[in-house]
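Re: the multi-chain job from yesterday

Posting the exact lines I submitted so nobody has to dig through the queue logs.
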Amino acid sequence: MRLVRRAKYSNIFLHLIMHAGATLCFFIRPSYDAITLAITLYVVTGGLGWSVGIHRGLIHNSFSTYRFMENILAVLGTLSGLGGPISSSRTHFLRDFCQSSPEFTTTSLPSSFWRNYLDLPFFWEMTLEPAPPDRVSELLEKRWFFRLLENRWLATGLMAALLYTLGGLVYLAWGLCARVVLTVNLFAIFDFYCHSHKHGSQRFEIEGASCGGRNVWLVALLTFGEGWHNNHHAMPSSPRMGIGEIEIDIGYSIIQIMHRCGLAWNLIKPNEALKPTARQI
Ligand SMILES: [Zn+2]
Ligand SMILES: [Zn+2]
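And the result, structure tokens for all chains:
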């Protein structure tokens, strides 16, 4: 099996535009409103939208919700800048496939931060040849609304127009550009530290995996619980990633609130989600 990659020039270009736009924050007088908006949007799009809606919901099916909620969360997740539901699912499947197999050590374990940064699936269309079946992405691809969300320029353009109308250039620079740059770069940091041998800790050993992920508390705090990544590799379909008493998992807290409001049900328990190949160290 061979890993083939093609550069996603459109994503690279958008990434550069966002960084260029974020530099405006140094030249425009910041406002309290604009910074509050950026932080709020980081939580709403990155936490509620991407971590809860796209990652734990659509990709891992770790809880059930109404279809309209899936669509709302998918819109929010796409606006995080981390990718739409279909591309996120395809990337996730491929990374997970490589990390779960002993064959792909060089792809699964980052050698340096910048090497890993330039290798981020955000910039590359990666496929395996021959391609193993990816049923989750195939199901998501059948939904026209999700296919529409994959047009990153459309989603970003609409968000830019809305923010500019509401608060002018300062809202656009902080609420879109700086916030997307923060999200993408924080998740690049997460990707490196949570897949590197040198950082964090492991609760589980996963037999046959080239990378079992690492638990890194500071990364977990900044990425809504995603940084409890060794737990996630061991229990991928658990909506709860921080399973220890002091393992703060903001994404799971959001799911619990949704559950209490009747917006999430069939929450899979961590022990039900444990991979048969995972063993507590
Ligand atoms: Zn991982
Ligand atoms: Zn996952």
